[in-house]
Fold this protein.
Amino acid sequence: MKRQLFIATSIAAALAGCAPIGTKLNENTGFHKVLDSAEGLDKRIIGTHGLAKEYRPQDISADFPLDSLPTPTSAYYTAIRKDGFHSYSLIVNGAVDRSHAFALAQLEKMATARDITRHDCVEGWSAIAQWDGVKLADVLAVVRPRADARYVVFHCMDSDQQGSLYYESLSLEQAMHPQALLALRMNGKPITPDHGAPVRLRVPTQLGYKSAKWVHRIEVVASMHALYSGNGGYWEDQGYEWYAGI
Amino acid sequence: MKGEGKTVYRHSVATRVTHWAFFIAFMALISSGLQIFNAAPYLDASDKSAPAKRVLSFDSPQDGVGTTTIFGRTFKTTGVFGWADDGMGGQGARAFPGWLTIPAYQSLADGRRWHFFFAWVMVICGVVYVVWGIGRPNISQLILRPSDVPKILPMQLYYLRLRKHPPEHGTYNPLQKLAYTLVIFVFAPLIVLSGLALSPGFDASLHPLTAAFGGRQFARLWHFVLMLALIGFFVTHIALVATQGVFNQVRSMLTGRYRLRSDDGTGV
């Protein structure tokens, strides 16, 4: 009986030690690298090539959470917001044959895509909305990425308390996905400033942090190493996976 | 029972290795899963988030107060759920306390890394165990068969000491067979599938999976309920190991050798 009590106590101690041991291991760089290796496997096996489910108008969420960095208050954003975004233009440059600045009116003319899709936040919640916008592939067709182009980077106008600007990236292949949109309208109305006006990205096959709000410039690059901390996104630089399909 | 006291070779190397690897993965998956859950501490029985269909939620209505709401009924759970150990030596608004999560402090990014790594460990263990065990006695002797069903109740009565002898059975008794069959062939595959149903990339490739669980948020609810079911099995498993000759039981899962007890069956 004494032995049984000893073993039972050991098991209980092992269970209680789980969180502290895990926390210690979590801070070990080598161990973290091992954990991070799963991302490559998930990307290869799950991917992002499928088409996100489309919903009916009655499925649209009454309340779509504003779970992002705060709405920009910079001088530039305040100015374009004041004139109804007429002076806004979306710059697309980098490893392309022909850089181009798209005025909002030009994007509106190109806006042929519409879908009702679900937005899945990395935190766990989901919300459904209707989006109208320009297929990212159509914008890229205008600028023509060069042969060495591999990633499409989205530089945004929102920043955190330390002043770090938001950015995100997709592989060129993900950017050509038929549902990857530069959305201009949400639920039939121009996107409001809080939801990313005038242009936000929509990537319904990946988690919400890919769907960057307040997009200002799109840069086509061969590598992301030189950008910020080099992980391909604001949240990626803080430990989140670049592959956001899971 | 004839053969009582005899030592038999019960668990193969494959069974023993996958058992302990699975144990580590299970602990890591639960604590990292609770860490992930803490980022959105509520469960809705619907596809999109819908407060009207909320089944469970943890809240902190004010500093120093934690509540748990189940099917609309709210309980004060300060110190355990809702307002609890923040993993940094203090207390804060947290659904599950820091001593239950990996890492102890709030970090959704790290919780996800742990979860998705150990999910692979779990899946690989399961596949190795089942594929290796197909056609071998290891698995065939613990699968519940129709002939075992009438013996389930008598076995339960024996455990409750309402019956003197267990019903005649093989290496595993009918209740063990029921538990192992449910865990290995129902709960474990379902918890993996309900987890995959949460992935927007996977949903895009295979809509029927997420739909089968009632949508993404509902799949999150299923994933949580299945975790509770597996924890229920785990607690029972530990309790039985601890009371049914703990040394013999633990040794058999380390060296493979098991000493037969008076109520052990000998057939298949």
